[in-house]
Amino acid sequence: MSTDNAPTPRKIIIDTDPGQDDAVAILLALASPEEIDLLGITTVAGNVPLALTSKNARIICELVGRSDVKIYAGAEAPLERLLRTAEHVHGDTGLNGPALPDPVMPLQDTSAVDFIVDTLRREPAGSVTLCPLGPLTNIAMALQQAPDIAPRIAGIVLMGGAYFEVGNITPAAEFNIYVDPEAAQIVFSSGVPLTVMPLDVTHKALTTEPRVEAFRNMGTPVGRAVAEWTDFFERFDMEKYDSPGAPLHDPCVIAWLIRPELFSGRFINVEIETQSALTRGMTVADWWGVTDRAPNALFIGDVDADGFFKLLIDRIARL
Question: Rounded to the nearest 5 degrees, what angle is found at the Cα of 279, between the Cα atoms of 278 and 283?
């Protein structure tokens, strides 16, 4: 069969703080070589401190025999604030659930920020998409260190923020943005094309029992690991939200790259609150167009949840 007309896979860098849902996002990318060319993974402090997020990224890659993936450690702390972590959701390792061996693959010697900058300067302009799944510290540092990279970025597709769902770490703020609002402000004012997966959409992608069982019933180490990760972190969210499952936040980023037709949203203005003690980290999304501020982000509001999980299950079954 001819593949002459097959689209070229999109080059991406995943910037992440794994996290069980980050793990599923990474697995989805690795399972989708037709659409995704993963140039590397950069890690940031967020759900747990940097040493653990860097360890977890390697555990995830080794789980699927991908010790060839290059992983770069990044920022240990937000730009201006003390680190706030989320062990209460993800467990003390950040990846609680299945018992997985410690990784043996190395971290790269280059820093995450240098890797991002070097890659964007080396690759053709407009060919690399950044996919942050955690606080935006590394991305902001790269933009600050090398302003010339901004027009070379194809786009930034990120998980973070909320509007109708407001906050999950404070009444007003989503965790990733709250941890480093100054970094988020730099990214949201960078002029780079942004696609945002806020809680408004991720809270519609719930791990119901039949969906989790579909992973478990694969009978593979990867399927079992995904089911056990989900079992661990969904307890917290199901109790918190009185919902039938937990949101799979971060895989929405990769799913949008593969099947954008599963999602819908609006191109609107989104500003980041950095000053208020009450609403620090809030993504002030002008969903109704009540200001004259210029739109700067495609803010996703809805997802075909069945289609999303069908994609996820089909792809994870490959691993």
Answer: 180
Instruction: Read off the pLDDT band of 4 (50, 70, 90).
Output: low
pLDDT in tens, 95-148: 999 999 999 999 999 999 999 999 999 999 999 999 999 999 999 999 999 999
Instruction: Return the SS3 of 132.
Output: strand
Residue by residue, DSSP assigns 192-254 as S-EEEE-HHHHTTSB--HHHHHHHHTT-SHHHHHHHHHHHHHHHHHHHHHT-SS-B--THHHH
How is 262-313 classified by DSSP, letter by letter?
GEEEEEE-EEE--S-TTTTT-EEE-TT--S-PPP-EEEEEEE-HHHHHHHHH
- Residues 88, 90, 203, 249: which is the catalytic one? 249
In this prediction the pTM is: 0.97
State the pairing for strand pair 36-43/71-73: parallel
CA distance 42 to 49: 14
| CA distances for 232 relative to 68, 123, 161, angstroms | 28, 39, 23
Residue from 157, 181, 199 nearest 272 by CA = 181
Q: Is 249 part of the annotated catalytic residue set? A: yes
Which distant-in-sequence residues (6+ apart) come within 8 Å of 119 by Cβ?
A: 13, 39, 40, 128
266, 301 contact by CB (below 8 A): yes
Residue 2 has pLDDT above 60, yes or no: no
Whole-angstrom Cα distance, residue 215 to residue 76? 33
| Cis peptide bond prior to 19, omega within 30° of 0 | yes
